[in-house]
Write a structure and sequence with these properties.
Elements: H1 4-7, H2 11-44, H3 48-72, H4 77-87, H5 103-124, H6 130-157, H7 164-181
Helix pairs in contact: 2-3, 2-4, 2-5, 3-6
Length: 185
């Protein structure tokens, strides 16, 4: 059987980039989660110099995650539509597959929400040093850039379209609505 790269020029590179970029991103997630655990401890114990250092570390990790995302998606959109996206669908993966369902990603998001709340409490109580507030602001900017770049990549690959998870959920909602109209519970 001929190799995929012989049949579809550029597809082998797209698959390689997609896989390597996502594997590197997953490593970033793991390090982010351990850094967030250390950061929560530093905030609880009011070790602000440690908190500042860890916030800067998280900022760099977010920037690195954005770079790995850009690397992972640096191939033509047609390769995504014709090869990558179908590989993330049935029968290869469950309907509605999404990277946001990754446990480490969910933990990171929960840890960041908790961090925001904890820093807000310290700020409101007048206990948050200016250097820590500035470091946190830099982190939130890196997080916002990461989200913007992800949205740009999504739009490039699926112009005006929805994620597989959103498509699945919309299909579920439509099926439930249809069942209710037919009198099925």
């Amino acid at each position: 059987m001929p190799q995929a790269s012989a049949l579809f020029p550029g597809y082998a590179d797209a698959v390689r980039r997609w896989k390597i970029g996502h594997q590197v991103f997953h490593l970033h997630l793991i390090v982010m989660n351990s850094t967030l655990a250390d950061l929560h401890a530093a905030c609880r114990q009011a070790r602000w110099k440690d908190a500042d250092r860890l916030l800067h570390c998280l900022t760099h990790l977010y920037e690195a995650a954005t770079a790995s995302m850009k690397y992972a998606s640096d191939f033509p959109p047609h390769a995504y539509r014709e090869l990558i996206r179908p590989s993330m669908s049935e029968p290869f993966l469950s309907p509605g597959f999404s990277g946001t369902l990754n446990d480490d990603h969910g933990l990171m998001r929960a840890n960041l929400r908790e961090l925001r709340a904890r820093l807000r409490e310290h700020r409101d109580a007048g206990r948050l040093p200016q250097s820590t507030a500035a470091a946190a602001k830099t982190l939130w900017s890196a997080q916002a850039r990461n989200r913007r770049h992800h949205m740009l990549i999504c739009e490039r690959f699926v112009p005006g379209g929805e994620s597989q998870l959103r498509e699945f959920l919309n299909g579920q909602d439509a099926a439930e609505h249809s069942d209710r109209e037919k009198g099925h519970p």
